Amino acid sequence: MSKRAVLEVIALDVEDAVAARAGGADRLELVTDMASDGLTPPVATVAAIRAAVDIDVRVMLRLADGFAAGDVERLVRVARELREAGAEEFVLGFLDPHGDVDLAAVERLAEVLHGCRWTFHRAVDRAADRNSLRKRLADFPGLDTYLTAGSATGVDDGLPTLLGEARRRGEPGYEQRLLVGGGLRLDHVPTLLDAGIDAFHIGGAARPRGWAGPVSAAAVAQWRTVLGD
Description:
- 35% of the residues lie in helices and 16% in strands.
- The longest helix has 13 residues.
- Strand 6, helix 6 and strand 7 form a beta-alpha-beta unit.
- The protein has one domain: Alpha-Beta Barrel (TIM Barrel).
- The mean pLDDT is 96.
- An 8-stranded parallel β-sheet has the order 7-6-5-4-3-2-1-8, with helices on one face.
- Belongs to the CutC family.
């Protein structure tokens, strides 16, 4: 039997989380403020969702739009509060003004997240040199996933990069799982699956009424069917 592909769905609240779970999501990315492309949610929301669903939840660590870390010590305090509220997995990713990974910020948060698994998010798609970024992060404890479209403009443009990185699986810097998201459509899925990519991330695709509406269990179930049970 083939290994089940991971389906991660963006959730903003408990209603989203319950619908995503009902539709067959394996994991949630928990954020707030999608007008800013997803920021750190309130601690109370994290606690409520952890109590409402039994699937994995990765919580965004990002305090402002863009990919600069900003106030790192504030991020550290927030991360500690989220862990106390039951968060066990996280999403983060920071670049410096030159488009290189902000190692100081990532190292500081990795210390606080010791023992947690985490995703480096789509900041990788804005990096000046994504290969260099991946190699510099190769040995960071807890980092097990890159959320990427292969391009800052989405999967349509990033598909060649995604397929190339899939072929490098197992090389230094390429041990982490590729979680594909960002303009991802159902028609992309067969090509990605054929390349051995086994993790998929959806946001707007799970919301037939757009970001003003909730996650639809039926929309999530459609993705689950295409990805396989």
